[in-house]
Amino acid sequence: MAGEQSVSGKVVLITGASHGLGRALAEAFARDGARVALCARGEAELAAVAESLVASGAEVVWRAADVRDERAINELAQAAEGRWGPVDVLINNASILGERVPLAQYPIPTWREVLDVNVTGALIAIQAVLPGMRSAGRGSIINVTSGVGNVARADWGAYAISKWAIEALTYNLALEERESGIRVNAVDPGAMRTRMRQAAYPEEDPARQRPPAELTGVFLWLASDASENVTGQRFRAPEWRAG
Length: 243
Fold this sequence. Notes:
This protein has a single domain (about 10-240), classed as NAD(P)-binding Rossmann-like Domain (Rossmann fold, 3-Layer(aba) Sandwich). It is about 40% helix and about 15% strand. It has helices at about 20-30, 45-55, 70-85, 110-135, 155-175, 195-200, 215-225; strands at about 10-15, 35-40, 60-65, 90, 140-145, 180-190, 235. Helix 5 links the parallel strand 5 and strand 6. The longest helix has 29 residues, at about 110-135. The radius of gyration is 17 Å and the shape is globular. The mean pLDDT is about 95.
C-alpha cells in the first residue's frame, strides 16, 4: 500500500452531514485530525453535529445548505479554503430517496427533485472544489453510491437511476482528472441503520443493520495518501479491509 493512511490536517468537505452516514463520516474524520467543512439542509441538526465536534477539539466550518444551491455550496468551499487552504477531500453523501413505485407511475416532480439533489447536487459540489484541487495538484472525490446503483432493481425509481448516474459521473470524472492528480471513486456503504434505510424498508428491524460508524474505514483510506494511485473504482464498505 503506497503512502500513509492518515487524514490528519486534510481539509474534508462532506455533504449531507447532519445525520446517518454523513454524521458518522464527519465524526470519524474529525477524530482522525481532519479539518471538516459540513453542509446539510437541517440547520438545527447540523449545528448540533458541529458543536459536538468543536467541543471535542475539531476544526469545523459548516453551512445549512441544500446541495442544489450553487451559491451556498461555493460559499462553503470558499470558507474552508479561506481558513485552511484548498479542499483535499470531497465526499458527496447528500441524497434523498423519493418514492418506491414503478417507473410507469413515478411522479415527475419527485423524479426531478431526486435527480437534482442526488446527481446535480454532487456535480455542484465537485465544481466548487475542483479549482482548488487542480491548483494543489491533488485531491480525492468520493461519491456515495448504493446497491441499486449498478444492478437493476424494480420499484426503486429515481433513486436507483440517480445512483447509476453517480457511478457514471465517478468513472467519467476519474478519466478527465487523471492527469491533474485528482482521484475519483465511488463507495457503496451497504445496508446501514439510517433513516433512509428505514424509509425504504419499513418492515425491517433497524437493529439488525450495522451503524454507519462501522462503515467509515474505506472512506478514510480513500481520503488518505495510502490510496494515492486509486481512481475510477467502486468499493463496498462492508467488504473493504485495510492492508
